[in-house]
Amino acid sequence: MAGVARLRLLQLSTVLRPSLLAAHNVRCHGAASAVTARVKRHMCSAPAYKHILIEKKGEVGNVGLITLNRPKALNALCDALMQEVQQALEDFDSDPSIGAIVLTGSEKAFAAGADIKDMQNKGFIDCFGGNFLSTSWDSVSKVKKPTIAAVNGYALGGGCEVAMMCDIILAGEKAKFGQPEIIIGTIPGAGGTQRLVKAIGKSRAMQMCLTGDMITAQQANAWGLVSSVHPPDQLLDEAIRLGEKISQHSKVIVAMCKESVNNSFELPLSEGLHFEKRLFHCTFATKDRREGMTAFVEKRKPNFTDS
Ligand SMILES: *[C@@H]1O[C@H](CO)[C@@H](O)[C@H](O)[C@H]1NC(C)=O
Ligand SMILES: *[C@@H]1O[C@H](CO)[C@@H](O)[C@H](O)[C@H]1NC(C)=O
After folding, report:
1. d(Cα 172, Cα 167) in Å, to the nearest integer?
2. Whose Cα sits closest to atom 2 in ligand 1?
3. Which of 26, 154, 176, 216 is the most exposed place for a label (fewest CB within 10 A)?
4. Where is the signal peptide (predicted)?
């Protein structure tokens, strides 16, 4: 019993240190900074972000990269950070040169969770009234273009949930995934209890959510939470290459394909199959469908025009 208790304490401190660090060392400047960022953007058209970095990657710059960048807080996801993520996602989503979006953190942490300091003194009314963990968080799953999470280090709580909102997860060998909310007296609030079940099954999802235990990248791979595992220093390149590969295809068809696969989570099979069939028929209304098939028949590379 004592052994178990000690193990649990040890685990508690390892799980929580990142977010507690965030709580103690770093102040997030709340909604004001995101508003300022937005105003600045309109004034000089160069995005001024405080908690994230954005770049265009790949040989022809067709992969949008968003790097969570609150290093001292191990990328704890405060409101201001999530609002910046939403803005960056919307910008890449409407940028015709971008075909896919990669979301990453640092080698140490993808994201250590929601900001506990942000939450510590909230009451029910604050959460309910402000619809806590809603708009900007939901935006990650609303993006039309494919999103790839490149996870090195910790993806805990909100970090794990944001990774699961992405379409594809690639992991670094040292990545750790977990929903440790139970340890601090709450439950996942941004999709963890729902998306985890779909990703890894009920028994494993229950175990992770009820114990708060983390799983390794290798376990996450074996359980189907992630697509593949890579050496930490090669992970980002791998994710960008994947983004480039997707970006070669017609953007309009890619968006239809993503929407159809995404719908399989929501719809019963008969509805999902019907939705897929109609979207399949829709592809025949595009130039790119004709170009794709003509290029195949003519044994040349297709020249997609995203139309
Ligand atoms: C994906 O499905 C979810 C519901 O499961 C929905 O809220 C979201 O808007 C969808 N995203 C896209 C891009 O279709
Ligand atoms: C691809 O198609 C566009 C529009 O029809 C055309 O302007 C462009 O020259 C084509 N590119 C190649 C490489 O054939």
Report:
1. 17
2. 262
3. 216
4. 1-22
Residue among 288, 303, 304, 306 to mutate when testing ligand 2 (max atoms within 8 A of CB): 303
Please choose, from the candidates 58, 77, 112, the residue with its C-alpha nearest in 3D space to the C-alpha of residue 246.
58
Residue with tokens 């890579």: 230
Distance separating alpha carbons of residues 118 and 111, to the nearest angstrom: 15
* Boundary residue ending a domain (247, 265, 288): 247
Ligand 2 mean position to 57 CA, how many Å?
Answer: 23
Look over the chain and give the mean of its residue pLDDT values, rounded to a whole number: 87
Strands 176-178 vs 154-156: parallel, antiparallel or unpaired: parallel
Between the CA of residue 182 and those of 107, 185, 207, 245, what are the distances in Å? 26, 5, 11, 39
My answer on whether 233 and 281 are in the same domain is no
d(CA 63, CA 96) in angstroms, rounded, equals 11
Distance, CA of 169 to chain centre: 8
One domain, residues 101 and 172: yes
CATH number at residue 181: 3.90.226.10
Q: How far apart are CA 299 and CA 254, in angstroms?
A: 22
pLDDT score, position 95: 97
The residue segments making up the domain with residue 121 are: 2-247
Identify the nearest ligand to the CA of 255 by its number: 1
Rounded Cα–Cα distance for residues 251 and 92 (Å): 13
Q: Write out pLDDT tens, residues 178-187.
A: 999 999 999 9
Q: Report which protein residue has its CA nearest ligand 2's atom 8.
A: 303
Q: Is residue 145 one of the residues assigned to a domain?
A: yes
Residues facing 63 on adjacent strands: 57, 100
Q: Tokens in use for 212?
A: 């708060």
Both tokens assigned to 260:
């159809």
Active site residue 114: yes
pLDDT higher than threshold 50 for residue 32: no
Cα R_g (the chain), whole angstroms:
20
